[in-house]
Predict the 3D structure of the following.
Amino acid sequence: MGYAAQAKEAVLVPDVAKSDRYIATILRPLELAVPLIYQEKVIGVLDLEHTKRGYFTEDHKRTLTTLQRSWPSR
């Protein structure tokens, strides 16, 4: 989640156990993190986790990134 917020981009991690950015608390094998950006500022991160490997796909990432970009800018 922290990297998604910092980079201001969606991050799909196929296996968090193999990611050097993941800090293990309760190990979940797959994560999709999408920063919520409003007026160029990150106001939160939508973080989806699932215990089934391969559950989230690039299609999920693309869909949520589309939602991310639909926020109004002023």
